[in-house]
Amino acid sequence: MLQFFGLVFREYYSKFLQGGFKDTDSIHLVTAFASETKLVLAQTQVNSKDNEITTLPRLLDMINLKGSVVTGDAMYCQKDVCKQLVKAKADYILSLKRNHELLYDDVKLWLDTQFDSGNLPINETVDKDHGRIEVRRLSYAEETVEVNLVN
Questions:
Q1: Which residues lie closer than 8 Å to 43 by C-beta, 6 or more apart?
Q2: pLDDT per residue as tens digits for the range 24-40
Q3: Which end of the chain is more exposed for a tag (fewer CB within 10 A), N or C?
């Protein structure tokens, strides 16, 4: 597990395992992974009538998350997932995309205001790889902002 300022990072992702002769032979798994130690902490199969979003709560129940920092992609940016992480006394870092329109607009407005006022510096890297230019922008806010994902 990755220790960063005393916090433990755990990643969640889903994967299809293939190897059968038909598409129906593949197994869809959601996995909890400890990044630093490269250990799988828990893994559960996504049932045929479910998806990763509905399967993740089962996986989270398998692990003691207290004091952990849980990371996940935008798919896991769900109110129920956040409620479960807060109840488990875990912190979380989840990607946010435009499919959560109101939350996205609120966060964008706050960030734009901070950038425009010079309160939030931007670190930018530009790389060219695989025939495309990738621009990554990173900012870190010392100020915490209350975002109501849970209620």
A1: 29, 30, 31, 32, 59
A2: 656 777 888 777 777 77
A3: C
Within-domain flag for 6 = yes
pTM: 0.67
Count of residues for the chain?
151
User: Mean pLDDT throughout 91-100?
Assistant: 84
For residue 99, the enclosing domain spans 2-138
Q: Write out the DSSP string of 41-93.
A: EEEEEPPTT--HHHHHHHHHHTS--TTEEEEE-GGG--HHHHHHHHHTT-EEE
Beta carbons within 10 angstroms of residue 139's beta carbon: 13
Domain count, the chain: 1
Tokens of 147: 């975002």
User: By the 8 A CB rule, do 70 and 56 touch?
Assistant: no
For residue 75, the domain's CATH number is 3.30.420
In a domain, 151, yes or no: no
pLDDT tens per residue across span 115-133: 889 888 888 899 988 889 9
